[in-house]
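User: I'll paste a sequence; please echo it back and then give the predicted structure.

Assistant: Echoing your sequence first, then the prediction.
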Amino acid sequence: MNARIETGFRDVDGTGETQPFADYLGHVNSIESVAAGKRTRAALLGLGDDAHAIDVGCGLGDDARALSRLVGPRGRVVGVDASAAMLERARARRQAEDGPVEFIAGDAHQLPFDTDSFHAARVERTLQHLDDPARVVGELVRVTRPGGIVLAHEPDWGTLVCTGRPPALVRAMLAAAETQIRHPWVGRELTGMFVDAGLTDVEIVPEVLLQRDLEIDIVIDVPLLATDLRAQRHQGVDELLAATREDSRAGRAVAALTLFTVYGRVP
């Protein structure tokens, strides 16, 4: 693969390889705790019959399709993504039970919609990769009608924790993971962005994504980060990997990442 998952989401089409990103999204979204969180966040948007909603950074389109089932046949849901390859997959995944949903290409920093076009707007695990998250939040506010809900759900990579040994090398590994993300602290910064964008009734809900098997990539890719540690000339990387495998197979391993849902109302 030409790009890492963490950095490749900045420009999926530019990597020339869509499948690894689709596989990653599909796997993470299939985790029951993640799926349950998505259902809860969808309910927070307050969508009813005839509602119009936008999902920015829609990826495979599953979230937009789920919203389309909430708005009735006269509603409208639009999924927006910068990746033509992802949008092609999203369109192909549409099912008979979906409501009115369409997928279009667009820049989240300059959405191709009039002001006050939607009753609700959402973005999930996307702001971390974009050039200017605050500008994107401003765009979500702009296209949402007064009284409507704007919601974002983003990780804070400064909260990443992981078992392992020796501790100093684990700390170096966590630091390497954080540096791969364009905006690693966006989770904790969302509230300020929402307040500065003029949203009212701003609420914050933290959520922890837990990983017990460190040999797969859900919140942390230990084998890949081991390559970074070697490049930084750290000693003991092979021992760290061996300990990770041993702990994972014995059920002792834990990695966790805090994500923040922030939502507010357009005045």
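Strands lie at 52-56, 76-81, 101-105, 118-124, 144-162, 200-211, 255-265. The mean pLDDT is 96.
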